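Tutorial handout. Part one gives the primary structure; part two gives the three-dimensional structure as C-alpha cells.
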Amino acid sequence: MAKEGADMTEETEYMIDKNVGKETENVESFGDTKEMRAVILSGFGGLNKLRVTKKAMPEPQDGEVKIRVKACGLNFLDLMVRQGSIDSPPKPPLVPGFECSGIVESVGQNTKGFEIGDRVMAFVNYNAWAEVVCTPVEFVYKLPDEMTFAEAAAFSLNFVAAYMMLFEVANLREGMSVLVHSAGGGVGQAVAQLCSTVPNVTVFGIASCFKHAAIRDSVTHLFDRNVDYIQEVKKISPDGVDIVLDCLCGENTGKGLSLLKPLGTYILYGASNMVTGETKSLFSFAKSGRCSLVKTAMDKLLSLYEQKKIKPVVDSLWALEEVKEAMQRIHDRGNVGKLILDVEKTPTPLMASDSTETSEAGEEEEEPEGDNDSKERMPFIH
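Part two.
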C-alpha cells in the first residue's frame, strides 16, 4: 500500500509557523542595537537574492534559548525556500535555514533545562543562517560530548526525516528491503545508517556513478541512477522491495512503484525534480499535535550516536559568504552527505565581495543555476 511522504512530512513545520518572521523584520540595524552577520534572502528567485549583511541580534523571549551559532545545515529544502516553492513561506526579506548548532548564550524567562555555555543543536523557525538565533526550548538538544558542531548541524533534520520515514511510516523490521534514491545525499546516508541498525535489512541504493566509491560500503547493492536499475534489482529480489524512498519524483516514481512488493510502502519526499508547485516542509508534521514524536525520535537517534551506530556524513564546510556556491553544489547534486555553513570560517576575498552586501544600491543580474566554473571556490571538503 503506497503512502505519500506528505503524511509523514507534517513533522516539524510547527516550528516554521510558530514564530515565522519574528526575526526577519528588517535587515538594517537601529541605534545601539547589537548587530550580527546573517544570510538574507531579499526575494524569491535565483542565487543573486542571497546576501550576507548585518541585522539586529535577537533576544530570547519566554521559553526560548539564545544560541551563538557555530554551524548551520544546508538542505535541498533551503533551495525550495529560496525559489518560493515551499508551502506558505514568510514574506522576504528573511533569514533562511532550519537547523544549527552552537553554544547557549542566554535563556529567556521560564526556560529550564539549559545553562549558559551548553553545547547544543536546534531546530529553528527559519533564521538559522546567522551568528545568533533564538528558538523555543522544546526544539533544543544537548550535544553528546564527542559530537562536533559540524556533525550536529548535519544531524537533526536528516536523521529525523530518515527515522520518521523508516520507523513511523514504513514500520521497518528485520529482514525487509529498502530502495533509496539519492543514496549519497544527507538523508540517503542517514537512511542507510539507520537500516544497518536493524538485522538483515537489504538496502538498494541509487546514486550518480561518481559517488559510488564514497558510499559503496553504506548500502547492500548500489546502482547508477542513469541506467536501467529495475532489472538489476529484480535479479536480486524478484518479488521487489518492501519500502521505496523517493526524493526525485518524475519518471523515478513509476520505476519505484514497479519494484514495490504487494502491501509495500512507497514514500515520496522532497521532490527535488519538481520545478513548480507548492511543497510542504518536513516541519508540517507537528501541526497535527504530534510534536512529541520529534523529541522521541531525537532521543533515540542521540542514543544510537552515542552507541556509535550512526554518524552524520559531512560533505564540506562553507563560510556564510560562500552560501551561493554551497547552494550550487547541492543543486548540481555534487555532495556526498551534508553541506555545512561554518559561521567562523573565513571566506576567500572574492567570495566575500560576491556575497556580502555593503550597499543597497543596485541589483545584479540573475545568475543561472548551472555550471559556474569561473567563480567556483572549493571549501574545506572532508
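Part three, for discussion. The chain has twelve helices and 15 strands. The CA atoms of residues 107 and 150 lie 23 Å apart.
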